[in-house]
Each structure stands twice: as structure tokens, then as C-alpha cells.
# Entry
Amino acid sequence: MPKKVDHEARREEISQALWRIASTRGLDGASLREVAAEAGISLGRLQHYFRTKDEMLAFALRRISALAEQRIRERIETLAEEPSPRVILRACLAGLLPLDEKSRIGTLVGAAYFARAVHDEALRAEARDGTPKLRAFFADQLRRAAERGELAPERATEDEAMLLISLVDGLASYVLLEVHSPEGALRLLDLHLAQLFGTAEPPGATGRG
# Structure
């Protein structure tokens, strides 16, 4: 068991080294040798954990996706005892925005993966794997809202859920480009939710972050 824990811890450290490079220089220049140097280990040691760059990239992408899911779960856990579907959606969508340094780095790394995945079939499959699950979860929250009389039934669809994902992806990109501030992106998100639900932010919603 100790060997397994150490093995996973080392893979995590290598992933973090890769993320640091990706967040500043992108992924194209992140060779195994550069990542090993960033992680403070030899190239041979790194290849004990990842035989190829593609293997390392796939693992690191899965880890950053898991961390994003954890961040969203933590947001939901801070909500009221029985949050409404709208409040859950808002917490999830805000959790996908680069609102602080940690989430900004995550978004930068995600953008670097996206740029590479466009031309890399294996990485593209990894990158898009979580989207159907997220769309289904959002669609389920929209249906719950419709059942509670909080949303027009015709808006409770997977297409609407995909529009929410697309909206927050676009806002995240514009925050990175400094077209919007994090606060401005949240304001636009809340504006869209108000238009979708036909009301302003409900009582009991969480703060601006």
C-alpha cells in the first residue's frame, strides 16, 4: 500500500509540474524533459511513471477535470440544506469560471489542452468525455425546476443545458483575455439565468463568488 500511495503522489507532482508549464507556455513546448526539470526529477524517473508524453497528458487532463468537479461539489456543499435547481446550476456554472488564482490556472491549463486536442484524436476523446455527463446533470436540474414551476417546460432540455455550458466556456475565455473581469462574467451569468428563469436572483442564493 505505501508504494501505491507514493506512486500516485509522484504522478500528481508531475501533473502539477505540467500544469505550471501549460499555464505559462502552453503544452506544445512541454516535453518530457522539461516537465521532469520542472518537477525536480530526472527524465528516467519521470518515464518510470509516464512512458510517453501522451500518457502523461491524458492522466493530467483527468486529474484537472477531477479537481474541477471537486471544486464544484464544495460549492454545492456550502449552499442551503435544500438548494433549488437554479441555485445548484448557478453554483456549478460559477465553479467553471476562473474567479481566483487556482481556478484561473485550471482554466489556462484547460485552454492549453483544448488547443492541442483539436489536432490530437486521443486527447480530444479525453477532453470531451465529461461533457455529456455535465449536460445531462444540467438538463436534470432544468427539468426539476420546470416540475417546481420555476422554469418554462420548453426550456428544460439538453439543448438548453448545452447552451449553459457554452455560455460559461465563452465567459471563461473572455476572462482569460481580460475582456471581462471575473465579477463581470458573474454578472453576465446571473443576467442569463434571470432571463432563463424569468426572475431575478432568488432569495437564499449564494454570494457573488
Summary: The chain has one domain: 2-197. The mean pLDDT is 86.
